[in-house]
Amino acid sequence: MEHIEIRFGDDIETPATEEKSFEEMFQSVNPMFCFSKRVWKPQMDIFETREEIIIQAEMAGVRQSDMIIEVSNKAVKISGTRKSNQPDPTATYRLAEIQFGQFERVLYLPSVIDVEKVSATFASGFLEIRLGKLLRKNIKPKHNVSLDFL
After folding, report:
1. How many other CB atoms are there within 10 angstroms of residue 77's CB atom?
2. pTM > 0.90: yes or no
3. What does the buried/exposed string (b/e) look like for 108-132 if buried means 16 or more CB atoms within 10 Å of the residue's CB?
4. I need a surface site. Which of 5, 59, 107, 147 has the fewest CB within 10 A?
5. Are 82 and 101 in contact, with CB atoms under 8 Å apart?
């Protein structure tokens, strides 16, 4: 089984907002404008249990070797490329909804994570990243306090 590379760092760069040209704004009108230059965003779910944060990403058609996972204490960045499998370059498209090319998602984490407890799996077109939460052992439990109102 091929391993998924996870990079750890202190900071994750967010994509810069770019001004788009007229052609880029309307590239979805004709998919042949620029398949390889479009940046798409895979659909993702992020949820949390008491012990961990779980990220699931729909990555159909992306090879494991074409994705990069970067983890900091604040965010997770998933990026890579889905290569086009256009069967015939002379074909006329009647419908083109599947996006190809580069993708990137930055997800900000709701809790601090323990970098020793990070894992990723990729099966059936779904990427799952499990991030163990950093449990604070020295925090005293909160007690219920009753207040008398005058």
Report:
1. 19
2. no
3. ebeeebeeeebebebeeeebebbbe
4. 147
5. yes
Q: pLDDT tens digit string along 48-83?
A: 999 999 999 999 999 999 999 999 888 999 999 999
C-alpha–C-alpha distance, residues 132 and 49, integer Å:
10
Q: Among residues 128, 114, 117, 129, which one has the least CA distance to residue 73?
A: 114
- C-alpha 67/C-alpha 26 separation (Å) is 27
Q: Which domains does the chain have, with CATH numbers?
A: 6-13+35-85+98-133 (2.60.40.790)
